UniProtKB/TrEMBL annotation:
SMART domains: DEXDc (SM00487), HELICc (SM00490), HRDC (SM00341), RQC (SM00956). Residues 216-367 form the Helicase C-terminal domain. Signal peptide: none annotated. This is DNA helicase RecQ. Its cofactor is Mg(2+); Zn(2+).
Length: 520
């Protein structure tokens, strides 16, 4: 079959003039019976890559997706365009499921969206034995991988499909995959020999900025007021409680800010989401529950008031800014407590040792990204296996190179305090000792007798926080899971012994001096 058939579907059914990026090549592989692996950033146009082949090939195209909540919307949108699309998932009643099955067996469905557990049921597989299958599309394919940030055990069982239907074209699609994840997807879904299409992850119109958390709400307001007065944007918070308090606070400051998290009544959630999509200049304050499948092109900023859980998550969340290609800003504020919380979450998380190990490595990669003094885009793209030859000129570190100072002496004071207090306390107490506070804890433990008591008065408590944060991020200190107790690592030894030096970053609170994105 040739690509012109596909192109006429693109134009007549979907109303677009031309294929984008590698869509034409991907589609052409599939309609000629080959398997495909596609790595494309969010918003790159993955859906058409399987929708069009499913329409032009004979039989039903099976789209496996974990996003049950989005299936109905996706199918409704396709139906409006005249596509014979249906879905099957646990939200439907018995009769509705029967109706869809009937349509499938009578050959009246071109695209079927289905959750993995449904697809893999014996009942459904035997139903599929009676129909012609155009292709299998595995959306969000990183869910098969323990290395991915969104592992779902039922996705691993999809390996059955590869063995059962070796001759049916298959496509795996994901927006987030490092090399390890890629390999695992290909292996589990039996896609060896598949043609791989990797679309660059670079989003040159997005400016990446990270700053230290001081008073995050005030910092956020300043960021919005000076750079995004009337713009639509997303503010991500870690907890539902902080979503609500931040939205309320922004509203009190005269912004139109709406909360969104999984705990809100569903009509309120829908309403807030619809307003964000339809009205101009709405700020949505949300947990990460918000965003999957949201396609709003003119989001001008994404702000994080807490650390995301991995670089993948950060990339995906910030990637919701500037989909229209116009300049957009991403800004993240994080502090000591975030670092500790994330490290604790990793060690406490359910899951086997391997999973914990992976989670830790991912957090380390994220912290490394946050603390880096060189071009952020280079680090980010490198994480996804790409190289950017030159610094980007459009991240905070490029625009305003961080100033570093010789932190050797400060770091040694900090590390010896951890040592002298017996590696049994958290950051707060260490700083109290260093700055010579007379707290009840210090007095009762006689920590005012230690040789490191009050030896750190050259820095403020706030400055000590940044020293500790950097020492943790750089792996000189480990955080114990339960109480945030600090321990020295092997790496700390040479520094303590004076065998090596360390450069620390001076924290800056101003915005980059020549922000290219400044609109108007
Ligand atoms: P992804 O799944 O990769 O995040 P989508 O498939 O949702 O991306 O596509 C993102 C947006 O781009 C959608 O609004 C889609 O309609 C649009 N789009 C995709 N392909 C084309 C094309 N060839 N021409 C114009 N718009 C396109
Ligand atoms: Zn840069």
């Amino acid at each position: 079959m040739d690509i012109n058939t596909a192109k006429s579907v693109l134009q007549n059914t979907f109303g677009y003039t031309d294929f984008r990026h590698q869509q034409a090549s991907i589609i052409s592989e599939l309609i000629n019976g080959a398997d495909v692996f596609t790595l494309m950033p969010t918003g790159g146009g993955k859906s058409l890559c399987y929708q069009i082949p499913a329409i032009v090939l004979q039989g039903v195209g099976i789209v496996v997706s974990p996003l049950i909540a989005l299936m109905k919307d996706q199918v409704d949108a396709l139906k409006l365009q005249g596509v014979k699309a249906e879905f099957l998932n646990s939200s439907q009643d018995y009769e509705e499921q029967r109706r869809v099955e009937q349509l499938i067996t009578s050959g009246n469905v071109d695209l079927l969206y289905v959750a993995p557990e449904r697809l893999l049921s014996d009942y459904f597989l035997s139903l599929l034995d009676r129909v012609t299958i155009a292709l299998f599309a595995f959306d969000e394919a990183h869910c098969v991988s323990q290395w991915g940030h969104d592992f779902r055990p039922e996705y691993q069982k999809l390996s059955i499909i590869g063995h059962r239907y070796p001759n049916t074209p298959k496509i795996a699609l994901t927006a987030t995959a490092d090399m390890k994840t890629r390999d695992e997807i290909v292996q589990v879904l039996n896609l060896t020999g598949a043609k791989t299409f990797v679309h660059s992850f670079d989003r040159p119109n997005i400016q990446y900025r990270i700053s230290e958390q001081k008073n995050s709400k005030e910092q956020l307001l300043r960021f919005i007021n000076t750079e995004h007065e009337k713009d639509a944007g997303i503010v991500y918070c870690l907890s539902r409680k902080s979503v609500e308090s931040t939205a309320l606070w922004l509203t009190e400051q005269g912004k139109t800010a709406l909360p969104y998290h999984a705990g809100l009544a569903s009509d309120l959630k829908d309403n807030n989401q619809q307003r964000f999509l339809r009205e101009d200049g709405i700020i949505i304050v949300a947990t990460i529950a918000f965003g999957m499948g949201i396609d709003k092109p003119d989001v001008r900023f994404v702000a994080h008031l807490n650390l995301p859980k991995s670089i993948e998550a950060y990339y995906q969340e910030t990637g919701r800014a500037g989909r229209d290609g116009m300049p957009a800003n991403t800004w993240l504020a994080y502090g000591m407590q975030d670092v500790i919380k994330l490290k604790q979450m990793a060690s406490q998380s359910d899951g086997n040792e391997q999973f914990k190990f992976i989670t830790q490595r991912k957090i380390d990669a994220l912290l490394g990204y946050c603390e880096v003094s060189s071009c952020r885009r280079q680090v980010l793209l490198n994480y996804f296996g790409e190289t950017l030859a030159e610094p980007c000129g459009n991240c905070d570190n490029c625009l305003n190179p961080p100033v570093t100072w010789d932190g050797t002496s400060a770091a040694r004071k900090a590390l010896s305090t951890v040592y002298r207090t017996g590696q049994r306390f958290g950051v707060g107490h260490q700083i109290d000792v260093l700055t010579g506070k007379k707290t009840p804890k210090i007095t009762s433990l006689n920590h005012d007798q230690l040789s490191t008591y009050n030896i750190g008065s050259e820095l403020t408590a706030m400055e000590w926080q940044t020293v500790f944060r950097q020492l943790i991020s750089m792996g000189y200190l480990a955080v114990e899971m339960d109480y945030g107790v600090l321990k020295l690592t092997e790496k700390a030894r040479p520094l303590l012994k004076g065998e090596c030096a360390i450069q620390l970053k001076v924290q800056k609170y101003k915005k980059p001096k020549q922000a290219q994105n400044k609109k108007k």
